Amino acid sequence: MLSYSLKRLAIAVPTLLILIVVSFVLMHAAPGGPFTSERELPPEVLANLNAKYGLDQPLWRQIVTYVWGILTEFDFGPSFVYKDRTVNEIIAQGFPVTLTYGILSFLVAVAVGVTLGVVAAIRQNSLLDYLAVGVSIGAQVLPNFVMAPILVLVFTLWLGWLPGGGWQGGQWQYVILPVIALSTSFMASIARITRSSMLETLNLNHIRTARAKGLPERRVILHHALKPAMLPVISYLGPAFVGMITGSVVVDVYFSTGGIGKAFVDSALNRDYAVMMGVTILMGALTILFNLVVDILYGWIDPKIRY
Amino acid sequence: MVHDTQRMQSLAERMAEDEVAGRSLWADARRRFFSNKAAVIGLALLAFVAAFALFGGQFAQWSNEELDYNVMGVVAQEGGPSLANGHYFGVDELGRDLFARTVQGTQVSLLVGLVGALVAVVVGTIYGATAGYVGGRVDAAMMRAVDVLMAIPYMFVLILILVMYGRSMIALFVGLGLISWLEMSRIVRGQTLSLKNREFIEAARATGVSGVTIIRRHIVPNLLGVIAVYATLLVPLMILTESFISFLGLGVQEPLTSLGALISQGASTMAYGTIWQLAFPLLFFCLTLFGFFFVGDGLRDALDPKDR
Amino acid sequence: MLKHSLAASALALAAASPVLADNPVPEDVTLAEDQSYTFWLLDAIKSMDPQINTDVEGSDVLRNLFEGLYNEDAEGNIVPGVAVDHTVSDDQKTYTFTLREDAQWSNGDPVTAEDFVFAWRRLADPATASEYAWYMELMQVENAPEIIAGEMPPEELGVTAVDERTLEVRITTPLPYFLQMLVHASTFPTHAATIEEHGDQWTRPENMVGNGAYVLDEHILGERVEMSKSDTYWDAENVVMETLTALTINDVNQGLTRYLAGELDRVDIPAGQFPRLKEEYPEQATSSPYSCSYIYMMNVGEKGPEALKDVNVRKALSYAIDRDIVVERILQGGQEPSYNWTHWATAGFEAPEIDYATWTQEERLERAKELMAEAGYGPDNPLDLTLQYNTSEDHKKIAIAASQMLKAIGVNITLDNYEWKVHTDRMQNQDFDLARYAWCGDYNEASTYLDLFTSYSGHNNGEFFNEEYDAVMRESKTAEDPLPLYQEAESILAAEMPIIPIYHYANVDMLNPQIGGIPTENVMQTWYGKDLYRAAE
């Protein structure tokens, strides 16, 4: 187990290196640079800027310098576009925002999704089941960029209950809509997976035995069925996590939360090389870490898995 | 949407159980598939959507790029669905026929989904089968590479590719295909490993059949079920991804459109009394996705019945 | 050197009685308790450094945090800022500004002539690498071109602090609109000690020292900017609005929804929504001319397509565009169809008579077809061109409509949508046929537009090089009355047609009727928080 985790962590290093090199090369090969502006800069000024940000160096040296800066000082460099900020600061400002609504969305999706799924499975073919299945199928295919404006129309404009955007340091009113917009489709997926895997589990022998022994249904479900039924849900958490990172872009655009998703898209459009690299590396590292957590969780639930 | 990796594994294991699983398996599967109501509905939906994409254009009164100056500028009042002026689905913000545009958008979305899935399946199968069959260090290296690639936040890379290299269909296909073959290659490789020491493969090898031929003739056919299911479930994922790309404004170039682009357009203006601009594309989007999901789930259940 | 006062009448009046009429609130208005104003930004503010900023939205914020020599009033007239008065030498080449005694930085330091000298040198200095360094060149400040090119030290710039309160500026050619140019954010003073201490970080709320009516409280990138009234501002007692908040909302439709929900006091109206909103909210939906001009630039240079080298083809393309449809059916916000380059409401400007502006669209279309036929194109020999535009809903709509209109004269247009950076890069490399372009005036005078198409301009991406045009524009710099020359320049543009004018902008806004003091008569749409107030409901 431990050696497996270490092995997975060891992969992280080459992964991040490849990610850095690929993004670096992709970025620099693209037309336009951070200093492309409506009026072409005089060559002297451009040369000055390039020297200031190290863009006059050969590509390989830029990469080495960049990686070295990260390794030795955890310094991702200055933003090329937002000149009074460093990448570390931009991430420090946006990441907690994304993390807050991301984690909340994740918890909501799992908690509500699993509950819905279990209830639907227990009451298979009841009205509740059909309702849960129907809603979750619909919610799965409704893109969050449709969901978000609907939420704002209903809760902000018509009902006037919640603000239509902003973050204000994460006050609860500002967090609710982003969390709903981000969590719904994952919640629906989790509900469906839970339902089908619960149904399978309930048909397994040891559950039948437990029931036959006269254990209360509640105990059967919670103590015997739930754990094995969670395996497919857990293997879905990895893709869900990646999906949420993607969804954060939509949330940031529609709710002006100032999170990291929008920062990434902006940096790509502005050719803010440093911010783009910083966010990509952060997201890569998070993905690796998260997958590791999922693996460990998986092993904990299903001791049959050998590493 | 869901990728239930567990059930995919279970299906793959079953498919690898017998040599070229035999006719009966497929016949049984077909029977089970057609007795599954959801799967049949899904198939009907897909047939309908495909027919709409292929032949819908025959019924359109307008082309997908013509501006109808009669309704342009007064779309909210006069641009709604109407039989009288030939705009069955109404018009978009510029007065272009939404029916023709939905037909055309469905074509692009289906194309993106199918080609993306095809790339994934072809690359994933070849890669996985090769790794599994060759084995040893090559296998280890190839799979390590997959591990590495899987940890890359692919959507970011996709955005990078599209922002940097313009927005051609090719870039979109390549970008989508690039990110989706990884899981496929893992499953294929696993099954190839368990297949390759089986008697019929060893027999083939003993008679001097080449590695490539063995993979092609003996290993891949045993994986057809997994591939079919995986591909069917991959198509809607590709369509969803494309819709997100369109939302970012990085999708196909005008006057071409996709369902994602139409939906994103319709969603942004839904407060302005032109709800049909969202409703019709969204309807076809949902029908398409449901269709693929139902058929994919149905196929999987049919090939890997849990009551065995 | 003989000096004599040449101040504009409004200026003289204001300077003579500086206390009079400075409170922005009319007498019959009851003020609301809460004096706050919330406005909308489409994007995150890239820089709050006056010498680095290039964006219109950035300037809106900067005008509240800093103050230049002169400001604009609600009609766009020049009124005193840090300068109370100035004199001009006989040869019109030396301006001497008298700065007010009570101007202060937010840390209590006095605002001196040295601060302007520092800021202007800093703008031109290649070490600052400002994209707007050329503005010093545009102002014709002595030695600016050489300094920008790195051939002279910044200290050689033609700007001197004679004493603490006297700033002398030497320019190389007389510029009738020199004072207007001083309203631009690039010319705002900056606090040398702060910049030296904090470097690039000096614009952060905790470090920033400004001299405007407001101080920066918070700047959360991509979310909001908060400013509050500055106690050290020289006219603080007449500043009514206590706080200014700017919210970044990346989606214009979302912005409107949030305005309607009461979260903002002012927001742009998305294209096509003005008529409906005007009907529903007649007191809130406003449209007023805004000094920006929208065109399709044609690539007539070396790398451009052969067809566009033919003036007949260029004319035909221009004639075929139905501008009325663009403004009345697509934008619908009070924009004006345009047949010339300079915005119609620019101060002192009057468009010359341009023949095709008076024709009906049928006449234009007919003429366009004839011209295409003359050029050898027709149904059997269609012309294929690309039309490039940067990502935006509105640009997309107009481009789609234009491509359909051009189809009518046998031109097949392929639409090419690129991100802003790629779009700009391709334009600068002459890698386009037709490209969408727009220019917003830096100051309220026609030369801000017309200079763009001189062969020595940094923006002439279509490579329209015309000696006659250059000569006319050179001459206009020293002319007593430049208008006839500007008209001649416009006539050359109409005759050579290197650009297809499409429309002149309007600022189309939803504005909370409680908010007073927003200028609507100023074509530059310059506004100052210090002039605003919120009336009680």
Automatic annotation (TrEMBL), chain A:
Q: Which InterPro entries match?
A: BPD_transp_1_N, MetI-like, MetI-like_sf
One GO biological process term is:
transmembrane transport
**Chief site of localization:** membrane
Q: Which compartments does it reside in?
A: Cell membrane
ABC transmembrane type-1 domain segment(s)? 95-298
Q: Which keywords fit this entry according to its UniProt record?
A: Cell membrane, Membrane, Transmembrane, Transmembrane helix, Transport
For the keyword Membrane, the answer is yes
Q: Tell me where the transmembrane regions lie.
A: 9-30, 103-123, 130-159, 171-191, 233-255, 275-301
Q: Provide the topology term for how it sits in the membrane.
A: Multi-pass membrane protein
Query: Can you quote a single GO CC term?
Result: plasma membrane
**Can the keyword rRNA-binding be found in this entry's annotation?**
no
Q: Which Gene3D superfamilies match?
A: MetI-like
Classification via NCBIfam families: PRK09471.1
Give the protein family. Answer: Belongs to the binding-protein-dependent transport system permease family.
Full protein name: Oligopeptide transport system permease protein OppB
From TrEMBL, chain B:
Recorded topology in the membrane? Multi-pass membrane protein
| Assigned GO CC terms | plasma membrane
What range(s) does the ABC transmembrane type-1 domain occupy?
106-293
At the top level, the lineage of the source is Bacteria
Instruction: State a single Pfam family of this protein.
Output: OppC_N
InterPro entries noted in UniProt:
BP-dependent_transpt_permease (IPR050366), MetI-like (IPR000515), MetI-like_sf (IPR035906), OppC_N (IPR025966)
Q: Which UniProt keywords apply?
A: Cell inner membrane, Cell membrane, Membrane, Peptide transport, Protein transport, Transmembrane, Transmembrane helix, Transport
- Name of this chain's protein: Oligopeptide transport system permease protein OppC
Q: Which sequence ranges are marked TM in the entry? A: 38-60, 108-134, 146-164, 170-188, 223-250, 270-296
Q: Which family does it belong to?
A: Belongs to the binding-protein-dependent transport system permease family. OppBC subfamily.
GO-annotated biological processes: peptide transport; protein transport; transmembrane transport
Subcellular location(s): the record lists: Cell inner membrane; Cell membrane
Q: Which gene encodes it?
A: oppC_1
Automatic annotation (TrEMBL), chain C:
Cellular localisation: Periplasm
Which GO biological process categories is it annotated with?
A: peptide transport
Q: Which GO terms describe its cellular component?
A: ATP-binding cassette (ABC) transporter complex; outer membrane-bounded periplasmic space
| Signal peptide annotation | 1-21
Which keywords annotate this record? Signal, Transport
Coiled coil where?
Answer: none
Q: Which domain of life is it from?
A: Bacteria
Q: Which family does it belong to?
A: Belongs to the bacterial solute-binding protein 5 family.
- Give the protein name, as stated in the record: Periplasmic murein peptide-binding protein
